């Protein structure tokens, strides 16, 4: 099984005949601005088929594959998440009533 994680494609998805949207909420303005500023190359649906066949025919296909130029965004996003998770690891373990010191090897005391 392979999970496909596609980026943006050159389709009519955002056309007025294809998509109906609710009025924009100002709380999402920063996100809209960030998405608009991303230098994203739109994928061509016609060139995706051969890539998918290569994945399907692979002797050891990947569990996940990104289709498009999303890897820098994914690196940044997960880097920030990992940093936060590491900073709050003690609290995460405390929520399970675990002492973080018991899970990390401690230096041996000299006799």
Description of the molecule:
This protein has 111 residues and is mainly alpha-helical. Helices cover 44% and strands 7% of the residues. The protein has helices spanning 29-37, 45-57, 71-87, 89-94, 100-103; strands spanning 3-6, 64-67. A two-stranded parallel ribbon has the order 1-2. The radius of gyration is 22 Å and the shape is flat. The mean pLDDT is 84.
Structural class: mainly alpha
Radius of gyration, in Å, reads 22 Å
- For the secondary structure, the number of strands is 2
- Indicate the overall shape: flat
| Total helical segments | 5
Q: Helix content range of the residues, please? A: 40-55%
> Biggest sheet: strands, sense, closure?
2 strands, parallel
Report mean pLDDT, rounded to a whole number: 84
Distance between the termini: 54 Å
Strand content: 5-15%
Low-confidence stretches: none
Order of helices and strands: EHHEHHH
Q: Enumerate the strands of the largest sheet in spatial order, edge to edge or round the barrel.
A: 1-2
Please write out the topology.
Blueprint (H helix, E strand, L loop, with lengths): L2 E4 L22 H9 L7 H13 L6 E4 L3 H17 L1 H6 L5 H4 L8
Task: Give a concise summary.
With about 110 residues, this protein is mainly α. The protein contains five helices and two strands; from the N terminus they run βααβααα.
